[in-house]
Specification:
By secondary structure, the chain is α+β, with helices and mostly antiparallel strands. About 15% of the residues lie in helices and about 35% in strands. The protein is globular, with a radius of gyration of 17 Å.
Length: about 200
């Protein structure tokens, strides 16, 4: 997927550090804090990341830095993949692929088309842990979003945590943890059509 929406992961320095990070998501008998789990009950391991947060401070800046804007429903998943990080000794980390049916668009991708949206994170190859970036929320089948996205290949896109806006009860909402950004304030509360119209005007 290349760079994920100008997001710069801070990878652990070595295999031992990665192991500690993943185990931290699993918990142990000595843990006192509750273990974060996904909808399937798997423990969640969070990977530290450095976001280009300045892009989200202003909607104009965010739109200008990306390629497309569209809204759609996640109708399924595609074949994910793993990426090797560091010096090749660390455990490969997953990238999830979601199939999105485009419902509203500023032009491309075409309305009615099904495109791929990639998200860093997913279930590890052994199936024991779900990996997610700090500050991100896993996309889910059946959910709808407004994406301000980068095109990574033919019909393939990626959107950062702060540029993937959930649609709830027919209205755009701010991504969890990113409610105070200028981009979130500009789009939250609008219908998807109103949000895309606003984005098309940029």
């Amino acid at each position: 997927m290349g760079t994920i929406f100008r997001l710069k992961p801070l990878w652990p320095a070595g295999a031992a550090a990665l192991a500690v990070l993943l185990l931290a998501g699993c918990g142990s008998s000595s843990d006192t804090a509750p273990v974060e789990r996904d909808a399937d009950g798997l423990p969640v391991a969070r990977i530290s990341a450095r976001y280009a947060t300045a892009l989200a401070n202003d909607l104009d800046t965010l739109v200008a830095s990306m390629d497309v804007a569209f809204a759609g429903e996640v109708i399924g998943t595609g074949k994910g993949r793993n990426v090797q990080i560091g010096r090749g000794r660390e455990q490969p980390l997953p990238i999830s692929v979601f199939l999105v049916r485009v419902e509203v668009s500023t032009g491309e991708p075409a309305i009615g088309s099904v495109v791929k949206v990639e998200q860093f994170g997913g279930v590890t190859s052994g199936g024991e842990v779900r990996v997610l970036l700090v500050g991100d929320t896993a996309m889910s089948v059946g959910a709808s979003y407004v994406f301000i996205a980068r095109q990574d290949g033919p019909d393939t896109y990626s959107a950062s945590a702060f540029a993937r806006f959930p649609i709830e009860d027919g209205r755009v909402t701010a991504p969890a943890g990113w409610e105070t950004t200028g981009a979130s304030r500009a789009l939250a509360g609008r219908t998807p059509a109103e949000a895309i119209e606003r984005l098309a005007a940029e």
